[in-house]
Amino acid sequence: MKQVVGMVVSNKMQKSVVVAVDRLFYHKVYDRYVKRTSKFVAHDEHNLCNTGDRVRLDPSRPLSKHKHWVVAEILKKARIYVPPSNSMSDNVNSSSEALAS
């Protein structure tokens, strides 16, 4: 087997991620390229991967029933939305209440 590159779909397990790998192949009957997606369960030792990250997987010995891949490296981190902290909104609410009084 060779290395594959894919997108992390799920990281809800401990030390494991699910990675979706897309591939294109030419379909002779349809006379066009067809996209297929395969999902692989991979080992993430330090829980560094998040949903949306682009990662490279290396094959390994079977680690569990479905886990035969290891995350070799994170190629691109996903942009994750971080809501603003509540302390700022509390200050704004208290100042607006003071102005209303």
From TrEMBL:
<dbReference type="GO" id="GO:0006412">
    <property type="term" value="P:translation"/>
</dbReference>
<dbReference type="GO" id="GO:0003735">
    <property type="term" value="F:structural constituent of ribosome"/>
</dbReference>
<dbReference type="InterPro" id="IPR019984">
    <property type="entry name" value="Ribosomal_uS17_bact/chlr"/>
</dbReference>
<dbReference type="GO" id="GO:0005840">
    <property type="term" value="C:ribosome"/>
</dbReference>
<keyword id="KW-0687">Ribonucleoprotein</keyword>
<keyword id="KW-0699">rRNA-binding</keyword>
<dbReference type="GO" id="GO:0019843">
    <property type="term" value="F:rRNA binding"/>
</dbReference>
<dbReference type="GO" id="GO:1990904">
    <property type="term" value="C:ribonucleoprotein complex"/>
</dbReference>
<dbReference type="Pfam" id="PF00366">
    <property type="entry name" value="Ribosomal_S17"/>
</dbReference>
<comment type="similarity">
    <text>Belongs to the universal ribosomal protein uS17 family.</text>
</comment>
<comment type="function">
    <text>One of the primary rRNA binding proteins, it binds specifically to the 5'-end of 16S ribosomal RNA.</text>
</comment>
<protein>
    <recommendedName>
        <fullName>Small ribosomal subunit protein uS17c</fullName>
    </recommendedName>
</protein>
<keyword id="KW-0689">Ribosomal protein</keyword>
<dbReference type="InterPro" id="IPR000266">
    <property type="entry name" value="Ribosomal_uS17"/>
</dbReference>
<dbReference type="InterPro" id="IPR012340">
    <property type="entry name" value="NA-bd_OB-fold"/>
</dbReference>
<keyword id="KW-0694">RNA-binding</keyword>
